[in-house]
Task: inverse folding
């Protein structure tokens, strides 16, 4: 296959040749004879996003999401690799639980990794022998799944991970700095008032100190404050920021209500702006979604009873591309590439992914950045049919490729009086697994 005249994130126009699962050549005016040619003039080609933080809920909670529905949502948003977190049921804290989750992950239409968790009854000598992506999300405070751990166990986990050269991802919040006075409130902002910004900063500081003591490197998940980012960066650790912490703040909670509850919570607008600046200037290493779907019925509760988490795997790259279209945002297409592909591949040592270069996996996403559409929860492919980004502008992919196989094609938009063609998904063997009959793109 030859993808011709595509504009890469750096603005250069190139041809990209794919053979089998790999990119074999990138250049100008490449020979197109005996090749299937995809004309990409005027469109941009990105490396597929690596989302290092998702909760696909299976096993245990398939009514919220499954590997099949979550991965289709990922593919439709240009995410070609996902990493699932351990707080499922059973939690991924031993070899048997890992193997069970891996069986469910076989339904995924995108590439995947599985993180192992740490609890009081975890079995490190078995779990760490599995093909873990990382150890974590290691919870320093309770969140969904009640997997918060004590300081001594955290130190033991870091030591075990360092001995086996497994990276560690940390959910950094210190419950000692939660504001119990906020529990007297029942408004949507009470959750943000309860789980304070100081709770995150103190936990990041402590986690980085313990990591240095054990000669370990940690990655701070869903960093929601500029203070947390700065502490981790100065300590030589890496950070991720979610799209909701990047683009939403406490001022959005009056509209979102309990659908805006997540851990860590949304912060004040000034903090959000400073966090955005650190994303733009390179201090933040990557964007990851913390895709954590719940049903509408579950979220439609009091602020103290609603579960924490929002979906995001399908909307993250489209939102970032819409931001990059705006010259005033400071966010460039190259920076989007680094945040979503190159840096996650470097941080988690996935050398075959993250770039459009010869020898890399052919994980590719074609987009028309001239074309924007409004996000609608009802139109997304997750089992969760809502989004905190309802009505936001986005740039959705035309198609998504995983290791040389097109796994998603967006349905053609037809006239207003016609029925639009349904989106089409494929598995890695090229079988049409959902959608209207259509000729396979490649």
Result:
């Amino acid at each position: 296959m030859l993808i011709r005249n595509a504009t890469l994130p750096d603005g250069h126009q190139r041809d990209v040749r794919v053979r089998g699962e790999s990119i074999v050549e990138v250049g100008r005016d490449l020979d197109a004879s005996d090749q299937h040619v995809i004309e990409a003039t005027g469109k941009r080609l990105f490396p597929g996003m690596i989302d290092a933080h998702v909760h696909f809920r299976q096993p245990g909670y398939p009514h919220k999401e499954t590997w099949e529905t979550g991965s289709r949502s990922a593919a439709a948003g240009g995410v070609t690799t996902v990493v699932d977190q351990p707080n499922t049921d059973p939690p991924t804290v031993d070899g048997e639980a890992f193997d069970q989750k891996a069986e469910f992950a076989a339904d995924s239409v995108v590439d995947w990794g599985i993180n192992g968790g740490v609890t009081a009854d975890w079995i490190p000598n078995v779990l760490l022998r599995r093909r873990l992506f990382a150890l974590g999300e290691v919870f320093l405070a309770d969140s969904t799944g009640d997997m918060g751990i004590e300081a001594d166990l955290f130190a033991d986990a870091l030591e075990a991970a360092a001995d086996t050269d497994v990276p560690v991802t940390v959910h950094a919040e210190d419950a000692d700095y939660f504001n119990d006075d906020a529990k007297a409130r029942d408004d949507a902002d009470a959750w943000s008032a309860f789980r304070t910004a100081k709770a995150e900063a103190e936990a990041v500081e402590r986690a980085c100190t313990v990591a240095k003591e054990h000669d370990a490197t940690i990655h701070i998940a869903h960093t929601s404050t500029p203070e947390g980012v700065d502490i981790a960066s100065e300590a030589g650790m890496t950070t991720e920021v979610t799209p909701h912490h990047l683009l939403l703040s406490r001022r959005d909670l009056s509209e979102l209500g309990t659908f805006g509850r997540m851990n860590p919570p949304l912060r004040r607008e000034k903090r959000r702006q400073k966090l955005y600046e650190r994303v733009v200037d390179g201090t933040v290493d990557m964007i990851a979604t913390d895709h954590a779907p719940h049903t509408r019925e579950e979220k439609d509760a009091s602020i103290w009873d609603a579960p924490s988490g929002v979906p995001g795997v399908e909307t993250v790259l489209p939102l970032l591309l819409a931001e990059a279209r705006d010259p005033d945002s400071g966010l460039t297409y190259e920076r989007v590439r680094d945040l979503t592909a190159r840096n996650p591949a470097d941080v988690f040592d996935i050398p075959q992914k993250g770039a459009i270069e010869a020898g890399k996996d052919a994980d590719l996403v074609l987009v028309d950045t001239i074309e924007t559409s409004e996000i609608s929860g009802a139109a997304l492919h997750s089992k969760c049919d809502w989004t905190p980004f309802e009505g936001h502008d986005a740039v959705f992919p035309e198609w998504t490729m995983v290791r040389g196989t097109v796994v998603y094609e967006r349905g053609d938009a037809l006239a207003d009086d016609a029925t639009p063609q349904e989106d089409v998904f494929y598995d890695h063997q090229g079988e049409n697994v959902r959608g209207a009959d259509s000729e396979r793109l490649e």
